Structures are given as C-alpha cells and as structure tokens.
Amino acid sequence: MVYHQLQLRSMRVKAALDLKEGDRVPFIPTTNNFNATGYGVSIYDAMKDFGVLADPFQRYLKQYDPDLVYIPPFFPIDPMETAGHTSASCPGTI
Predict the structure, then answer these.
(1) What is the arithmetic mean of pLDDT over 71-82?
(2) In b/e form, how buried is each residue of 34-53, taking b as 16+ CB within 10 angstroms?
C-alpha cells in the first residue's frame, strides 16, 4: 500500500514536470517554518534540537498529505555560535 502510494505520487509529480496530464495536479506546498511553528515548536527550539520536529512533521504529513515535501532546513545554533557566526542572529538569542 505505501509503495503504491509512493509510486502514484512519483508518477504524478513526474507528469507535471514533463508537462503532461496526470491523474491530478500534484500538491507540493512550500511550508517555510510552518512544520515547526504550526505545531507549537519555536524556531529556536528547532535550531537547538532537530529531534523536536519528528512528531510535528508526522502530524503535518498526516494532516496535509502532500505529494512531495520541501522543507527548508533549520540551521543548528550551536555550531554557528562556536564558529563565531555574526552575520545573522538566531531567534530567541537576541
């Protein structure tokens, strides 16, 4: 069942990329940070510990059932601070 769904979604996206008619238009939302903030996880917490995103991401997938997922990465705070990164500030550290 899962493999069939993956195959169907893949064919749907490929048809769209090939400019061909598929069974329907693929649903590929750009979520920015919604997969965290929409489920009660702050951007700061996501940048400190990626593990806090596991449950919200599963909830997002179940709720919206996208055909393809693009989630921008959260940059980890600790290595940025260790490296002396100063061109941007992390949310919650100001």
Answers:
(1) 80
(2) ebbeebebeeebbbbeeebb
